[in-house]
Write a structure and sequence with these properties.
The protein has about 270 residues and is α+β, with helices and mostly antiparallel strands. The chain is about 80% helix and about 10% strand. The chain is rod-shaped, with a radius of gyration of 61 Å.
């Protein structure tokens, strides 16, 4: 059987317990829950604020890092550019100094070479002329005079066409036409006659021939008209020999020069 008294007592006890809990604990529990919720809300908001602040600081740090990286790259580029400019400047300066030294060295070498060649030329010319004078003094006889006349007449025949055409123009303007023959030494009458016949044969006409002895000739004969000249002189042969000797000496000097010096000499001669 159900003990209704016990049931009623338990219900009353339960209601009293509920009333007591509501009166003494429920409000406090709600207040504690509200305070807990508010504290959590505040903590959440603070966390959000700190997170936003951290993200902002992180973004600022990232931007600062990017700026520093850009500044670093710009500084490196500027340093590289300045280093390259300095290197180029130094290289240009070194090239200019080397070129100046090379030019100075080449100029000095060229001056020394020219001085050496002048000395050699002077000594060779003096030696050749001395030998030639001695030979001519020993050979100054009729045979040498004949050889000189033969060489002159050969040279005269080679220039016959030009002389003849030019002489016709002179002969038309001058009456009587005349020419001047210079010799290094007086010729015997027979050789003079041979020369005069050769001149008249080339000029095709009557011509007055004047004779003159010139100390400028070493051993030869020259024919002078108004603007033409035919000459044979032993000095020309000596000059040709001297030129060949000097050319041989210069080629020998070039063959012993370093390659760079030869290039400088070639450029110098091309400039001249």
């Amino acid at each position: 059987m159900v003990d209704w008294f016990t049931v009623a007592a338990q219900i009353v006890n339960f209601l009293i317990l509920v009333a007591l809990l509501r009166y003494f604990l429920y409000g406090r529990i709600l207040e504690a829950i509200d305070r807990r919720r508010q504290r959590l809300q505040n903590e959440w908001e603070e966390a959000q604020r700190l997170r936003a602040l951290a993200e902002e600081e992180l973004e600022g740090a990232r931007r600062e890092h990017e700026q520093l990286a850009q500044q670093r790259d710009e500084l490196l580029r500027r340093v590289r550019r300045e280093v390259e400019e300095y290197r180029q400047s130094r290289m240009r300066q070194v090239r200019e100094e080397v070129a100046a030294m090379r030019q100075q060295w080449a100029g000095t070498l060229a001056d020394e070479r020219e001085a050496f060649l002048r000395d050699v030329r002077r000594e060779v010319a003096a030696a050749v002329l001395t030998i030639a004078r001695r030979v001519l003094e020993e050979l100054a006889d009729a045979e040498l005079e004949t050889i000189v006349v033969r060489q002159f007449l050969q040279r005269l025949r080679e220039a016959a066409t030009t002389l003849r055409e030019r002489w016709r123009e002179v002969a038309e303007a001058e009456r009587p036409p005349s020419v001047l023959v210079r010799t290094a030494f007086p010729l015997p009458p027979a050789l003079q006659e041979e020369v005069e016949q050769g001149i008249r044969g080339v000029l095709d006409g009557d011509v007055t021939i004047e004779w003159e002895t010139s100390a400028d000739l070493l051993c030869g004969i020259t024919l002078h008209t108004d603007d033409e000249k035919v000459a044979w002189d032993f000095r020309d042969e000596l000059d040709a020999i001297e030129h060949e000797i000097l050319q041989t000496i210069e080629e020998e000097i070039r063959s012993h020069q370093p390659e760079a010096t030869q290039e400088e000499t070639s450029r110098e001669e091309a400039t001249r």
